[in-house]
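Dear H.,

Thanks for agreeing to be a second pair of eyes. The structure we're designing against is below in token form, covering all 286 positions.
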């Protein structure tokens, strides 16, 4: 069969595969908490189970067959729900310069984040499996093979998003200008020592009204959002850096490592040292 196709990834728009990861059902009991990636996009395929996710400031019900696209800077979090476990493939991509879209983003920011893979689900899942096996097996030429597979995967992701008028929104809350201001302030200052009063003073609003509006929009109280934002960043630092636990704690605004350890264990289900060891061992075994 002959088919003339317009190439999307040409010129200086050459995506770079950063990693492929698999989360099994039991691993979601200790999820990655609220975090964002500043210089790359994550594309996540839900392959089993269902759960609720907070993406940016909206809650989504996700299930098998959904495709999630996290552009750079989009804060995302798996919302705790009893019995909710998901299995996923996650593909991280940098180096994108899509026409008319900010650098390293795959989709326009107003396109949405959650889509149905539908007929392309099996093919996209297979591409993730092949890339994962090639990279984890350290085959000669794996990076070259995976580059071609990545382009196919991203082309399918664009097709999935392009065939749907809007993403799937579970909780269509009216966007609040104040709630958005609060979120942006916390996202910009979560590494600093903050109190509810300090946030309210900075935005020149009452603490009660601010907390009420923010929880209506995000589903979290402002200080809960702040803690989850810090713990998510702590997970990133534990995974990707050699910083000590005390260095991470103090860099995120905690005045005592014991308080940090307590908060981390409450949100993740294990202390930070165990999380780091568990993650590194699991990654090496893969």
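And this is the sequence the design step returned. I haven't edited it by hand at all.
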């Amino acid at each position: 069969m002959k088919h003339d196709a317009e190439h999307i990834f040409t010129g200086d728009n050459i995506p770079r595969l950063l990693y492929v990861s698999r989360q099994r059902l039991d691993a979601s009991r200790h999820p990655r908490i609220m975090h964002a990636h500043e210089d790359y996009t994550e594309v996540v395929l839900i392959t089993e189970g269902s759960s609720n996710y907070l993406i940016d400031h909206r809650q989504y019900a996700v299930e098998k067959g959904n495709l999630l696209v996290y552009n750079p800077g989009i804060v995302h979090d798996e919302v705790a729900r009893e019995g909710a476990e998901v299995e996923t493939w996650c593909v991280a991509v940098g180096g994108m310069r899509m026409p008319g879209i900010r650098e390293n983003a795959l989709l326009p920011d107003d396109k949405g984040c959650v889509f149905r893979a539908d007929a392309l689900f099996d093919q996209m899942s297979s591409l993730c499996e092949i890339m994962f096996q090639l990279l984890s097996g350290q085959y000669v030429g794996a990076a070259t093979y995976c580059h071609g597979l990545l382009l196919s995967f991203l082309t399918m992701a664009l097709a999935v998003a392009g065939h749907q008028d809007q993403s799937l929104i579970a909780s269509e809350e009216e966007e609040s200008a104040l709630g958005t201001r609060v979120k942006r302030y916390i996202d910009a200052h979560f590494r600093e020592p903050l109190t509810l009063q300090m946030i309210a003073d900075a935005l020149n609003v009452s603490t009660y009204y601010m907390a009420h509006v923010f929880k209506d929009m995000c589903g979290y109280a402002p200080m809960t959002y702040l803690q989850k934002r810090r713990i998510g960043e702590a997970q990133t630092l534990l995974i990707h850096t050699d910083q000590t636990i005390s260095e991470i704690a103090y860099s995120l605004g905690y005045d005592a490592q014991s308080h940090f350890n307590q908060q981390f264990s409450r949100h993740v289900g294990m202390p930070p040292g165990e999380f780091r060891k568990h993650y590194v061992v699991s990654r090496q075994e893969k």
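Two observations from my side: The chain has two domains: 16-162, 177-285. Residues 170-174 have pLDDT under 50 and may be disordered.

Warmly,
E.
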